[in-house]
Amino acid sequence: MPTLPPLDPNDAEPIYRQLYWRFRRSIADGLLKPGERVPAARALAKELGLARGTIDNAYALLTAEGYIEPRGQAGTVVSHGVQTTLPTRVVIAPYHAARQHAPLLPFQMGLPALDAFPRKIWSKIAARCVRATQLADMANPPVQGLPALRTAIASYLQVARGIHCAPEQIFVTSGYRNSLSLITHALLKPGDNVLVEDPGYLPTRPLLNHLHIQTQPVPVDHDGLCVQHLGDARAVIVTPAHQSPLCVSLSLPRRLNLLEWASRQQAWIIEDDYDGEYRYVSRPLPALKSLDREGRVLYAGTFSKVLFPGIRLAYLVVPAAQVAHFEQVSQTFLGNSPELTQAIVASFMAEGHFARHIQRMRKLYGERREATANGLRKVLGEHISIDAQPGGMHLILRLKAAQSDRLLAEKLAAAGIYAEALSGWSVNQQISPGLLLGFANIDSQARAEALGQRILECLMA
Fold first, then answer.
1. What pTM, to 2 d.p., does this model score?
2. Which of 28, 69, 318, 390 is deepest in the core (most CB within 10 A)?
3. Helices H, strands E: what count in the chain?
């Protein structure tokens, strides 16, 4: 047999496909002739220093396409009548090339500190979970979520958020929108009225309106949702830990009044606790759900802010009396969170990495928030003020001059800086112009100052 060209471990294609193409080249060039015997897989593996399985994969592909054929004790030979012209080689893109995304912009909202995520630990756990995959794990996953993950979430919520719940009350979802859709299908009907914060989280109203649910804005002030303005409704959606986007916390008197309203109206409270872990002036406040004694609060949490958004994993805690009903509804609307991902997160939590990661991030975010605020004040001090906030993952820059924050946000986008106009988050309430800037990925005051200069240029343009 002729000598094959050397294999390249740095090539984009796997070794077995490189070997496949080398055999095809030798056949096309006439170096391997019809009827000629090819080396035994074991002998070739030894000669090339490769695993036997690599050779078997290459030979299987050549056999399937008719280039070689087994002849029993006579060995494997080049088939008669094979094509002798080599087609254009199809290169399989490496994994990193297949996963191409738009570049991340400075101050991008909703992004945790991706540079500080423990990727090595995560990769080890992921590899272990893949190796441990059994046949049963490859079938349809439980639609309510992997039992191990539901147990880990219940344990975490009891310790960290003061919520006493059983694993059966937890439903794993693919994100906040999925959680809200599940609630809507289970507890609401078209035409129902739902109260939402004003200003409030942007995706909420369009999603509910798409599901034919009416929304009514309720103003927010320095103590959170203005509970005294609540009217007749089937539900209210609230962000009590860190109001979105103002980052204020719902005061205890208002929390109690909100629970009284829900009891009186027989209405539902949907608590969105999207970044309740990140409070810097004191310990994180207990969740509103921890005060719920009548089963009126549904608690929606997510891993997007505490791990990373690409994981597309969240969870919903429903009142015990509603578990059976949600199980029925979830048969239709859930089951779209990969079990392998759930298994990785369950192990990450059970082994203590999750709690340690949150503790590290809380400290890091406190430092980055201060560095970012100081850097922006140094450059923009006479043009802006920065709200004092107890927590959250973004800053609110108030513009001192009377100008459009939406127009400024457009200018910044053209300059490669992410910013959201505060006024765009409000329906009825008059809000002074401002910008929302995520600080979690700003790693130094010097970086903040450099970005502040670019903001200043857009501000003065």
1. 0.78
2. 318
3. 14, 14
